[in-house]
Amino acid sequence: MFNSFIKADNWVSSIEVILMLNQCKVVQAGMGHDDPKALHCPIGVLRFLLSDEIKIFTKEQVLNNLVLDINHIEYILKFKPTLLKLDTSLEPLVQCALINGRMDILSSLLNQIPLPNLKRMRKLLNYTLITFGNSEAIKMFAKKGLIPKKSIIELLARRGDCGLLDIVMANMPSLFNKQLNNGADGPITVIPFSVVVEQAIKWGQVDMVKHIYSHKGSKIHLIKHHSTAVSLGHVELLAYLWEVEPVENYEEVEELFNKAINTGQIGSLVWLLNHVDDDTSAQLMAGPINIKEAIGNNDIPMLRHLIDNGGVLDLRSIHNLKTYQSNPGIQSFIAQYKDQRAQQNNTLKRRSSSSNPRPSKQSRKK
């Protein structure tokens, strides 16, 4: 009945019917199966539906089944603020304020909607906050404790806003500082700055990574994030991380070398080989280089790059790989590599033989 009323072509006649049913004390129990998000009404109709005289529809039914815009929310704040105390879903109102950048309305809503109701909606509001929220909005949410602790990392990293990071740190210090006691909502979730750095690298937020290292380096200097930068091909970030946390251990360099190969990041591989010493670079390329992942990924460009730059591939047990057995292209490529290596070995043998000639019979007699 509610949906039929909202969709009526003739509002005047429809309102007369509702008034008649209302006088007969008819009350709608359910809302049917129509999509409520498709329902919208003029401000005058909303005023009628929210009037104290109308009992046929509950106020919760009206708020939950209408698409409300800024004008509607302004009316509710001015004339029906008690509706904000209802134990019902009010996410659309807060979302509307966020999307339209109306910080005045957002502030009023956050101050008037009971905190337990706000906390129930914070997960649903998180995406809207990430997408549309500005620093002022995020500060409001942080002060109310409405930013979900598990989602704060994505929020910070995706936005890449260093000022936003500072705001969250200032207003939600328990997220980053270890405490033994529990918070009001249960155990405090501590987020190491290294986790924020890791996510910022994944989103390619160079400035945020630099900001965290420059201000909180003492708290994250033991954590290395080079592997993430390598695997995602973020060469600029890799260069910065290498500067603040140089990798000097050969095993760690070799791990990064293999990570670049396994993830198909030629750019990372080139940068890495150009920024280690010549002996290390030569040792890495002399291998034998594990290429099982590259074969599994059908990454011929990476294999070609390794071969063209003198890399020695590890061919042991690759013939047992299903990905090798079912890939004629890879088989053909490896066959060509074998021929190439055989020719190179023969050339080296001839050069070695010519530079060290066998002694003559006369020399042997002497």
Report on this model:
The protein has 366 residues and is mainly α. Helices cover 63% and strands 1% of the residues. It has 23 helices and two strands. The protein has a two-stranded parallel sheet. Helix 9 runs parallel beside helix 11 (162-171) and helix 13 runs parallel beside helix 15. It starts with a helix and ends with a helix.
Mean pLDDT: 79
Poorly predicted runs of 5 or more residues: 32-38, 179-188
Straight-line N-to-C gap = 119 Å
Number of helices: 23
The largest sheet has its strands arranged as 1-2
Helix content: 55-70%
Would you report the number of β strands? 2
Q: Sheet bearing the most strands, described? A: 2 strands, parallel
Label the overall shape. Answer: elongated
Please identify the structural class as seen in this structure: mainly alpha
Cα gyration radius (Å) = 33 Å
Q: Quote the beta fraction.
A: under 5%
How is the secondary structure organized here?
Elements: H1 2-6, H2 11-23, H3 43-49, H4 59-64, H5 70-79, H6 91-99, H7 103-112, H8 115-132, H9 135-144, H10 152-159, H11 162-171, H12 193-202, H13 206-220, H14 226-232, H15 235-244, H16 250-262, H17 266-274, H18 278-286, E1 289-290, H19 292-296, H20 300-308, E2 313-314, H21 322-325, H22 328-355, H23 361-365
Parallel strand pairs: 1-2
Helix pairs in contact: 6-7, 6-8, 7-9, 8-10, 9-11, 10-12, 12-13, 13-15, 14-16, 16-17
Structural features:
366 residues; mainly alpha; 23 helices; 1% strand
